[in-house]
Every structure is written in structure tokens, then in C-alpha cells.
Specification:
Tetracycline Repressor, domain 2; homodimer; 0% strand; 257 residues; mainly alpha; DNA-binding; disordered C terminus
Amino acid sequence: MDDDAQVALPPGIDLLWGLRPRPRRGPKPTLSLDRIVAKAVEIADAEGLGPLSMSRLAEDLGFTTMSLYRYVASKDELLTLMMNTAAADVPVPSDPAEGWRPGLARWARETLVLFRRHPWALQIPISGPPLEPNNLAWMEYGLRSLAGTGLAAGEKIGVILLINGYVRNEARLSGELAQGMQQRSSAQPTPTYGQALRRLLDPEKFPYLWEIVESGVFDDDESYGDAEFEFGLERVLDGIEALVRERSAGSASADLG
Amino acid sequence: MDDDAQVALPPGIDLLWGLRPRPRRGPKPTLSLDRIVAKAVEIADAEGLGPLSMSRLAEDLGFTTMSLYRYVASKDELLTLMMNTAAADVPVPSDPAEGWRPGLARWARETLVLFRRHPWALQIPISGPPLEPNNLAWMEYGLRSLAGTGLAAGEKIGVILLINGYVRNEARLSGELAQGMQQRSSAQPTPTYGQALRRLLDPEKFPYLWEIVESGVFDDDESYGDAEFEFGLERVLDGIEALVRERSAGSASADLG
DNA sequence: CGAAGCAGTGTACGTGATACACAGTTAGAC
DNA sequence: GTCTAACTGTGTATCACGTACACTGCTTCG
């Protein structure tokens, strides 16, 4: 009648929270979970998720493929562990006097750094809200900034998800762009986005798009930089500020009663 | 010295724009590209991208696996074609008198419908900006609303990408939630997000998250609905409105000279 | 009318994830 | 101290999947 192992957790989550019993007998392990995950992250950082196969990973570690399965139940589980590791560069506790807005902005920038450092983290298929300890710590970090705002619980989550979504999207866009540039500098001649559109588009059928193409914005590779990120972030924060003001006004009058 | 086939386009793009020569001799085809892509979309809509294998697809069509390769160069190409088909429910030309804000809001809602209908479209690995005709038409549709705003070309693109990103994120979130609910109703007992967090979290290490957990928002499956979408959308549009106002004020004074 | 080009098929290969059984190793039970 | 269960690293095997290649029979153009 213990309720500990009652409900199934997604693969790898129990391991991350130390809920999986450690082996007691047997030979000293030569490999280790940490080394496996670290190497996997290293490969994914450098070459993406595609070239990361269990055999490739094992080879880079100097072991056989199957040895990895002594530490990891499946590749799926490995990906979960990698996700947790990617979020391990845990942000410093922010100054409590910092306002919610600079706090969230800082959170957003650090999240962007995370996704730039580990672009594959955007492509891991996610089956639900995060349960990895480091990812939850990251969320906690964001929530801390909202503590004094008087927002309802659901609203706080909404704000966190909104910003996280914004950052993810920016990271994805700049990642795609970087990928395009990389391809262009490689062997086969891939055209610029602007070049491709000029060749394909019928100006009469796509007048508005054509106008943009003609402006030349699509021709330089440098489009999506930090300035765009900061600008969009401010827009999103503006929207949140409206909500915060509304709530703090309401709760202030209630508190003053 | 023709410059037509000079530069390489991503796989499938040439086909979509009618740039691939049609075969002249040989037996009458029994299969067709349209049927293949339609069936592929059907499978992906119903079961996701995972179960969509070339053999499964062929079987459902009543042909052999290899017959598909008479119409499609690779699975990658097939995915591109599917993407284009997903965006085929082309939006009606909007009333030109409609303001930019309701126009963009409508565009956002229709994009959300697209991603709800074809959740797999969010998971197709994208290597760059869209080149599929229907996806470009979709973009064009969004740009039309921005015609009278006086925004610069780069800003218009930024706005379009911002909204598209917001919608993608909301669709992803509600998709994940639906997936979780589906699993919960299946055989193995998967816990609610709230249940899982209650079991894993140390309230002292995650005080802010714990507060949310205690509030119960994580316990009902109904969290992410249309109300949240509309709310967040209005916030994003608020941010854009600020930009538009700034630009129209500037250009107005310039135009009046 | 004859051959070039093409549709659908069958076979085959390479890769990737992973189940399973085996040999050597180690920590406790007696 | 000894025995054995538990465990590590490995080799082998299987299955699913994407796709190259060669074959047969049909169609259309020169």
C-alpha cells in the first residue's frame, strides 16, 4: 500500500529525482551516467540531434553500444537527461529588489542563451510540461520575479509560458537562419531567401511579399539579431505590464479595505 | 548558360512550383502525388508523424513501398509537400476596410486552427524560411493587413514572425496538454501535472512553483483554452500597436511636408 | 513499328534502436 | 572464507525504416 511507485512517471524523471535504486553489488562501473550525458550533449551541441545515435555516442566514449543501456533505459530517457543537463547552468538568484520587469527580461535573455548554446533542445519532442529538476528550477527562477505582482497563479503561469514561447520562437528563427548561412557557405550553392523568392514569386499574386523582397531585407543574412529580440521582448513585456497594472490596482483597493 | 536550374532549391520546392518536368511516355499512372500526400496528411492528422512511415503509407494506399518513390524523391520531400497541403485551406481575402489589428487577429486565429488541425506541422524539422506556395500565400495574407501601417519592410516581417511564433507556441502548448490527457485516459496511469509536481517538488526549494501547485491550476486538464489564447494575443497586438502608432506619427509628419 | 522512357514491383542493403544471453566481477549472506 | 545473487561490459540477433537497384510490362514519340 505504498503510494510511492504507484503512478508512472515519464522515463528518466525518476532517475533525475534520485528515485531509482542504485545497484549495490557487481563490478565497479567504468562508465558513468554523467559521462554519457555530457558526451551526448557535446555531440548534439556540435552537430545536432541527427548524428547523435547510440552507437556514435558509445564509440566516442570508447565503449560498445549496448553498454550505454546499463545506464539509460532508452534513447528517449537519454534525451530527457540531456534536457535536464542543458538547463543546468542555473541562473543566479536575482536581487529581490529587482523589479518584475527587469527580472523577467533577464530571465528571457538567459533562456535565449540556453537555446543558442543547445539548439537541439528546441527539437526534442516534448510530451508535456517539464518535470526535470533543472527545468523546474528554471521555471521557479522566472516565477520569482512575479512574486510581488499580485497576479493569480494561473496568470503567472500564463506569463511564464508566454515569455518562454517568445524566446523559443526567436531562438528557432535565428537557428534556422544560421543553418541557412552554414549551408550557403558549404559545397552546393543554396540561394539566399531573397534570391529564391525572386525566382519563384509572381509579383502580381504576391504583391505584399514582393514589396518586402524588393526592399532587400531578405538578402542579407544578418536579419535576426539581438536588437530584434530586445524589441520584441519589450513589446511582450508591455502587454504583461498592462495586466500587472490592472491586477495591482484591483488588489491594492482590496488590500486597503 | 540558362540560369533556371542554376541554384539548388530545397527538395520538393521545385515540384510545388511546377518546375519539375512532367513525364511524357510510359504507362498511365495509377497512383498520384495528390493521393499520396493527402493520405499522408490523413495519417499524420490522426496518429502523428511517428506512425507515418513510407511502408505504412503505401500499405494504406494499396501499393508497395517503392511505388511511392516514383512520385516523391524522399520522405523529406514528402514532408515538404504535406506542409504545403496543410496550409492549403487558404484564407479568404479580407475586407480591405478591415483595420490592421482585427486583420492580424483573424490571421492569428486562422493560423491557430491550422496548427490544431495539423499538429504534426509543428514538429516537421524546418531548415529555413518557408518556400512552399501555400505557406507563402499564408504569409502574404498576414502582410496584407499591415499594408497601411507605414511600417518598414523589416518591421512588417518582424511583426508577422512575432505573431506566427506566438500562435505556434500556443498551439504547441495546447497540443502537449491534449496529448497528456489522452495518455491519462489510456491504460497506464499517468499522473496529472499537479500530482506529479506534488510528489517530486520540495516546497522549500521551489517555493514559488509550490504556491502555484497548491493553487490547483495544474490539476484540471482544461488549462489552456481559447480565452488564454485571446488574452495573450491582445497583449502581443498591444505591443505591435505601440510600434504602429510610433511609425504612423513619424510618417504622417513626413508626408505632410 | 521499334526503342526510349516510365509505372509498379521485388529484392537487398545500411543504419539505428534495442532484446537477450554470456562471461567475468563484486558485495553481502552464511 | 566461501558462495551466490546482482551487476558490468560485450557480442549477437532482430526488427523497423529509408531507399538504391534491377526487372517486367506498357505507352508514346520518332
